[in-house]
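Collaborator request, handled under Task 6.
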Amino acid sequence: MALSARLGQTAADDIGPRPGAPSALSAVIADDECGEQQYVPSLRHQGLLWEQVRRRELITVRARDIMSRPVVTVRRETPLSEAVGLLTTHGFAALPVVDDRERVVGLLSESDAMAALESRNASAVVGVAMSSPVEVVEPTTEVSDVVKAALDHHRRSLPVVAAGVLVGVISRSDLLRAFALNQGVIEARVCSLLDDYSGSQRGWEVEVADGTVTVHGCCADEAERRVLTAMIRTVAGVESARVVDTAHVRSAG
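Structure tokens returned to the collaborator:
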């Protein structure tokens, strides 16, 4: 079953027939350049795999998916006492400061307000206490990048802006809720992928733990088990995947 290692390119590089390419529906094992065994998906499996990758390119969780809105804001001229009332009443970690065009010009955090209040200036306004410039994210920013920005800049909340205009805000609570729900989201997406692949004709048991997905189910052969494993790894949030072929496990027993 000799086959050039070049036929073992990824599904993204090789999804259609080429002159002289094999047309077998089953996958094969070929020697790579180091002489080791390498899995080579069949053309049919390559097409299925690439379709799953293409369809799931847009499922990455982004700022727009978890941000809170509408946003309670203040302006530079807002009395500091009023802003403190908003912070304490709503339990916010910070308040975005906007101008007349709803563009973010600053951020008033709890620590900013406390530092200003220590000056005992009863007539202080937000403009003299706020932090500026402000780190912001866009609606399309991936959650992982939002987390990095929050940690790098020691912020408990980040404004979300589109074309410079405030459209939402993300707090650390929003981020924590997103990660708490992440495993359930991953499981739902994996189940949807498997149903799309098999037409809901086969039952799959899906387990998710810390980004690792384990699937139990009946596979037609080793080639399909490997293709399913590769497909599951395309789901956002999946760090590793393992497919257990229960049919062959039973037959081996």
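The cover message to the collaborator said: "Residues 31 and 37 are 5 Å apart (CA to CA). The first helix runs from residue 43 to 55. Please let us know whether this matches your experimental observations."
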